[in-house]
Amino acid sequence: MPRYLVTADPVATFQPRFDTSLRLMAELLARGVEVDYCDLTLTDMSLRTDAWLAALPVQRVQWSDPTRPPYVGLGEARRAAAADYDVLVHRKDPPVDARYRGWAARFAALAGRILQINEPAEVLRHSEHLLPVRFPEHAIPTVHCRDFAALREAVRAQPGEAVVKPMGECSGIGIGFFRPDTPESVLWGWWQQYGEAVVQPYQDAVTTRGDLRILTIGRHVLGSVTRLPRPGSRLANLHQGASFHAFEPTPRQLAAVAAVTAELVPRGLYLLGLDFIGDLLSEINFTSPSAMVQIGEVMHKRPEVELVDEIEALRRGFTARA
Q1: Bridge pairing between strands 162-166 and 176-178
Q2: Per CATH, is 3-124 categorized as 3.40.50.20?
Q3: How far apart are alpha carbons 227 and 210 in whole angstroms?
Q4: CATH 3.40.50.880: does it fit domain 141-202?
Q5: pLDDT given for residue 114 in this prediction
């Protein structure tokens, strides 16, 4: 049987209403797969990379059940080497800050030796907010603002309202809506709080069709769900109170999915959450993409079964190439 290691935030922070990791671990255990968990916050970053990878703090996952607090049962803490596992599943949530990058850089040293979902070197190389720019025919126009002058210029250049997103955040945190004539003092206040950003033109479809998530593993579509902002809001994030509903992807959206996965899967970005507003890509999530729980509910299936099937197929292919 293969051995899996799930690296993540402390289990006390898991949110069973949204959490993919709990379902993934439960499905692996149901198949008799050995699963360990590593709380990345407990790793000793003073160690050199080789020593760090050889002595990860891990615990055996004894059970995982999102309906039963404390949701996951863990064995005794021990040390284990990353190389002892067949698959590493990285589920650390953003922000993609210095600590996150430090952990990812350590795991990137294992590139080509162990299947990692997703490959840390590629996670470090890209931004979830900027990756759609690589597919301009499928994406909302996006401006990357590294300084305040660029932010001000990008907002002023919009034909209508601008959507401004902090580079390192997720779940709708920090998103601002600014008209081209927004006072500079207001823009400056946002910049002082969040810094580096992307700017996109506001899409009216977010309040009518919602923010559409298509979740993929490899070239396989696990499912789709649309998230509609709560009344009075324009944030279509579940963590911001949005509701979720079933939807059928359009041919144009599926063409974008095919183009994105054809380029990114060979690079090691296997598990993706592609977000669309209307038919246009707004983000490509690859750090810890979610919505699997909601997809399962609206599509009346258990996508974690397909997820593990596809990861196992990737593992077998990876092992055959090694």
Answers
A1: antiparallel
A2: yes
A3: 5
A4: no
A5: 96
Min mean pLDDT across 122-126, 228-232, 269-273, 291-295 is at: 228-232
pLDDT digits (tens, 9 = 90+) for 63-78: 999 999 999 999 999 9
All CATH 3.30.470.20 domain ranges in the chain, comma separated: 206-302
Closest to 292 (Cα-Cα) out of 15, 7, 19: 19
pTM: predicted TM-score of the whole model, two decimal places:
0.93
Return the exposure string of 103-125: e unless at least 16 CB atoms fall within 10 Å of the residue's CB, then b: bbebbbebeeebbbbbbbbbbee
From 210, 302, 212, 217, select the one nearest 250 (Cα to Cα): 212
SS3 of 249-287: the string is: CCHHHHHHHHHHHHHHHHHCCCEEEEEEECCEEEEEECC
Top-tier CATH class for 206-302: alpha beta
Q: What is the pLDDT of residues 30-73, one digit of tens each?
A: 999 999 999 999 999 999 999 999 999 999 999 999 999 999 99
- Model pLDDT, residue 322: 64
Token pair for 32: 């008799």
Of the candidates 159, 119, 49, the residue with the CA atom closest to the CA atom of residue 272: 119
Structure tokens at 262: 């054809």
pLDDT of residue 266: 97
* DSSP sequence for 199-228: EEE--THHHHT-EEEEEEETTEEEEEEEEE
- Give the CA distances from residue 97 to residues 127, 170, 174, in Å, rounded to whole numbers and listed in that order: 12, 12, 15
Residue position matching structure tokens 């990878």: 53
